[in-house]
Amino acid sequence: MKEIRFGIIGCGLMGREFASAAARWLHLTGMRARPRIVSVCDTNPALMAFFTENLGPIQATSDYRALLANPEVDAVYCAVPHVLHAEIYPAILAAGKHLFGEKPFGMDAAQNRAIQEAIDAHPGLVVRCSSEMPFYPGAQKVIDFVRSGAVGDILEVEAAFLHSSDINPMKPINWKRMEAVNGEYGCMGDLGMHVLHVPLRLGWRPETVQASLVKRVTQRPDGKGNMVPCETWDNATITARVPHDGGHFPMVLKTWRIAPGEANTWSLRVLGMKGSAFFTTKSPRQWQFMRYDGTQAWQTEDLGYTPLFPGITGGIFEFGFTDAIQQMWAAFVDELAGGDAKGFPCASPREAADHHAVLTAALTAGRENRTVEVTYATL
Ligand SMILES: NC(=O)c1ccc[n+]([C@@H]2O[C@H](COP(=O)([O-])OP(=O)(O)OC[C@H]3O[C@@H](n4cnc5c(N)ncnc54)[C@H](O)[C@@H]3O)[C@@H](O)[C@H]2O)c1
């Protein structure tokens, strides 16, 4: 099997998830290629022990330039705070490495544009943006249902990413709550790609948006005995007007970091004139659908382990978050090895740019309490 040699820049939460997915690659069957992590980089050296202890002798450096200078590295996964995307992603491409970058692909639209220019300058490199939730089998069922035409004219779409990790106001601040590092989008920058990936893939590009932005926690402890400003938006509810063949429809996008009772809920609901479909990670092995042949009654189907990229797990068993991460990586590695990601490639730079256009409009809409037109970048 072909081997693709990876470097990881940013060894925090998400860097470890990739290492774990790569370590159990034997889980997948029939893959064209496998990833091998040959280099890791983090400015916090303490975080690299996880990698060096589990992966044996690999390059470990606190300077990403050293990783990029390593000729053994074919592709790079970059999972660093948002403010650094616009510096490091172009450097990765300039070094001739394929890029799998974490969302939001730049802290704001201007930084995204700078990344896009670097991508345009290196057309031979494969570039994708992280977004794993659509790889749940239930999400794929909703996508297939829509693509089959079973929905008919659309009445409404709702896509949500809800969690409650910031509900405790005394949780110490981290970079995700600081505007200078996370960006002005706040929760929309953290979670916006998750809710927009599938809508944009299905061709649902908002024309205008309204947005309700909520900021409930204005100060947090800094971990050193002081209270410091907590600047970012906690929750955003965007209502978009989407042009479509059967007429405009409303699309509600919820990115909430303070959603009481929610752990990490990604959901997608499509309501149409002929049929409707729904998936939520709260019921990870089920999806629901309705076809109105006489009655309007939701049907619920248990899916079990039926992902795009087959694995050793029996079809009767459950699929979970770490599987979704591995499926996303399978899609990227398959593309690097010349495959078509089984028809569902990871989020593209174009989708990342379009999501910035929506979030930029939503930020103005929410701040100024008005409807704002979405201006898409010409790529
Ligand atoms: N796809 C998902 O589900 C998901 C979930 C969480 C976070 N993310 C994204 O992943 C990225 C990282 O988030 P995280 O939660 O892993 O954050 P994190 O804080 O856990 O990890 C980021 C790491 O980057 C390191 N770092 C900072 N500056 C660096 C530099 N100059 N060179 C090398 N390393 C540097 C930090 O020391 C830290 O260890 C963000 O873009 C975030 O939006 C994605």
From TrEMBL:
Sorted UniProt keywords: Oxidoreductase
Name by which UniProt lists this protein: Gfo/Idh/MocA family oxidoreductase
Superkingdom to which the source organism belongs: Bacteria
PANTHER family in alphabetical order: BCDNA.GH03377
Molecular-function annotations in GO: nucleotide binding; oxidoreductase activity
Record-linked Gene3D superfamilies: Dihydrodipicolinate Reductase, domain 2 (3.30.360.10), NAD(P)-binding Rossmann-like Domain (3.40.50.720)
Domain Gfo/Idh/MocA-like oxidoreductase N-terminal, residue spans: 4-122
Organism: Stagnihabitans tardus
Pfam families in the record: GFO_IDH_MocA, GFO_IDH_MocA_C3
Domain named GFO/IDH/MocA-like oxidoreductase: residues: 140-277
UniProt key word 4Fe-4S: no
Transmembrane segments: none
